[in-house]
Amino acid sequence: MSKMEFNGVELELDLLDADVMEEYDKNINKIVDDVKEPTQYEGKSVADQMRIQCGHVKRFFDTTFGEGTAEKLFGEKNNLGDCLEAFGIASDLAKKENEKTREIMNKYTPDRVQNRAERRAKNKKKHNKVTAYHC
Fold first, then answer.
1. Could you tell me which residues come within 8 angstroms of residue 66 by beta carbon, excluding any fewer than 6 positions away?
2. Residue 4, SS3 per DSSP
3. pTM metric for this prediction
C-alpha cells in the first residue's frame, strides 16, 4: 500500500493492484496532457493560468483518491506551489512501488537462484581446498 502525506492529510493507494495502477497511470497521463494544452492559457492573466493548473491537479487528486480529496489537501486555495508539490509526491508513489516490486522480483529471479548455486559451488571448492591443506 502506497502512502503519502501532504498538509497533514494522509492518503493511501494500492498501486500493486493492477486496476488501481491502471487508473493511476491514466490520471497521471491526463494531467500531464491537460497542463500542456496551450490554448487554455491564451489571453489569461498569470493568476488565471495558475488557477487553471491548480484545477488540473485538484481533479487528479479527486479522480485518483476520491471525490473531496483536493478540498482536504488544499481547501479553497489555489497555491500553485502547494499543488505542484503534492502532485510531485503523488507521482513519486509509482516509482517507489516499482522499486519495491523490482526488489521483490529480484529475490526470486532465475539469475539469483543460479548465482546462489554458483556461490555454493565456489564455497564448496574453497572449503575443500582448506581441508586439503590440513591433511
1. none
2. strand
3. 0.74
